[in-house]
């Protein structure tokens, strides 16, 4: 059975319009994955339906036309409406809303480089033209980079199909080849992310060591975990993301730069501290490096696997395996108020009711001068203004972590007014 291979004669019957139209359709309504379609085109090239140059040129033209349409849509709707539309439709493209905001941040910071490489990442390649439009990216720069990226992507998979048809004679199965290509893509994306993170960690460790130079050596556990542990954490996050992509909303744990940025205002006197969604403990290690005693940490983690891992790594901390929306019902420090809540939760992918419950519970446990720290991959505060107004809160951006994958910003959320101490 080879549905992709069976589709090619029908497309070829329409000649130029057939291949141009199907690649445009795939870009606008990705019900048929591009890598599968392009592998089938490569098989068809080997069978003589099109020449290699014609197949590549027509497929690039169709994909490029779809990118132009999405760019124009983003430009026409404007940043606010286009951004809201992309976040609402993120699930249609197989992405979490947080990843949309990550793409926005990356395109702002990297421009043409990100536009090119985005075309080599599944799903991301579909939404980036719309993001470029809402950001009013320079058309010549963006479309040049996009056309080059599309050419590389299409050429890779057309070539894969052509090679498969040459090596597997007779009757190569285009559908089976496409599925193998998908597995290889996911592994390459994970490997590339891990290589970049390991490269950036070397630079991040230097900055983090400098920022904690004044702390007592007794309170400074090693901030750079072994490479084996880092790799284990990456794979743990990847497995958790596969099980629940909207809850985890990250393929790999947060980097050292982000951990340093989100804990920058934490000092030993801030304790006790509550951490929400600690995952494998990237922020937890940074809190310990800031001088917060391990016994003065409460780690709230909804994932049982992560909760067990945290209990093993931080035995003196309180690990609460529970949903953060129920935080108000917990009493981790026997009535003592916390000085800070550090959040690693993907609040952008959560419904407003859940965000309100989390913030309400957090400030229930915070001192009057306490603060809630939240990161985001997007260009603005991840807590909507309406929710801040409703709860009497204010948000201030206190830092960026450009070296993180993807780049992130950190916000401090606090009360608009503070009651004087009793």
From TrEMBL:
Signal peptide: none annotated. It is found in: Cell membrane. The keyword Chaperone does not apply. It comes from the Bacteria. SUPFAM superfamilies: S-adenosyl-L-methionine-dependent methyltransferases. The keyword Ribonucleoprotein does not apply. Keywords: Cell membrane, Membrane, Transmembrane, Transmembrane helix. The chain crosses the membrane at residues 7-29, 49-73, 113-135, 142-165, 177-196. Residues 273-370 form the Methyltransferase domain. Residues 32-162 form the VTT domain. InterPro entries: DedA_domain, Methyltransf_25, SAM-dependent_MTases_sf, VTT_dom. It is a multi-pass membrane protein. Coiled coil: none annotated. PANTHER family: ALKALINE PHOSPHATASE LIKE PROTEIN, UNDECAPRENYL PHOSPHATE TRANSPORTER A. This is Phospholipid N-methyltransferase/membrane protein DedA with SNARE-associated domain. The lineage of its organism: Bacteria, Pseudomonadati, Pseudomonadota, Alphaproteobacteria, Rhodospirillales.
């Amino acid at each position: 059975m080879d549905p992709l291979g069976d589709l090619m004669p029908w497309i070829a019957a329409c000649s130029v319009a057939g291949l141009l139209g199907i690649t445009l359709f795939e870009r606008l309504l990705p019900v048929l994955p591009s890598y599968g379609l392009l592998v089938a085109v490569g098989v068809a090239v080997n069978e003589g339906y099109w020449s290699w140059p014609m197949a590549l040129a027509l497929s690039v033209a169709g994909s490029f036309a779809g990118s132009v349409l999405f760019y124009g849509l983003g430009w026409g709707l404007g940043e606010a409406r286009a951004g809201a539309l992309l976040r609402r439709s993120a699930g249609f493209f197989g992405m979490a809303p947080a990843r949309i905001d990550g793409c926005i941040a990356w395109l702002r910071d990297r421009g043409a480089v990100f536009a090119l490489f985005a075309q080599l990442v599944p799903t991301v390649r579909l939404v980036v033209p719309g993001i470029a439009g809402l950001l009013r990216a320079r058309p010549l720069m963006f479309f040049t980079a996009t056309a080059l990226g599309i050419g590389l992507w299409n050429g890779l998979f057309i070539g894969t199909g052509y090679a498969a048809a040459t090596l597997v004679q007779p009757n190569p199965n285009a559908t089976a080849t496409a599925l193998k290509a998908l597995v290889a893509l996911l592994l390459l994306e994970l490997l590339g992310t891990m290589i970049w993170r390991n490269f950036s960690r070397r630079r991040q460790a230097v900055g983090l060591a400098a920022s904690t130079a004044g702390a007592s050596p007794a309170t400074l556990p090693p901030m750079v975990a072994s490479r084996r542990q880092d790799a284990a954490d990456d794979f743990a996050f990847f497995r958790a993301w596969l099980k629940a992509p909207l809850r985890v909303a990250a393929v790999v744990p947060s980097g050292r730069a982000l951990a340093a940025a989100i804990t920058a205002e934490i000092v030993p006197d801030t304790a006790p501290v509550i951490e929400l969604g600690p995952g494998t403990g990237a922020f937890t290690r940074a809190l310990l490096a800031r001088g917060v005693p391990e016994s003065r940490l409460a780690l709230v983690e909804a994932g049982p696997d992560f909760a067990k891992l945290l209990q093993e790594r931080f035995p003196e901390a309180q690990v609460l395996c529970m949903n953060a929306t129920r935080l108000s019902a917990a009493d981790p420090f026997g009535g003592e108020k916390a000085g800070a809540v550090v959040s690693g939760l993907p609040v952008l992918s959560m419904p407003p009711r859940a965000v309100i419950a989390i913030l309400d519970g957090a400030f229930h446990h915070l001192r009057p001068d306490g603060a809630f720290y939240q990161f985001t991959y997007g260009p603005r505060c991840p807590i909507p203004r309406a929710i801040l107004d409703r709860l009497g809160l204010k948000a201030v951006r206190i830092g960026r972590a450009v070296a993180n994958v993807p780049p992130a910003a950190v916000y401090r959320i606090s009360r608009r007014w503070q009651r004087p101490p009793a």
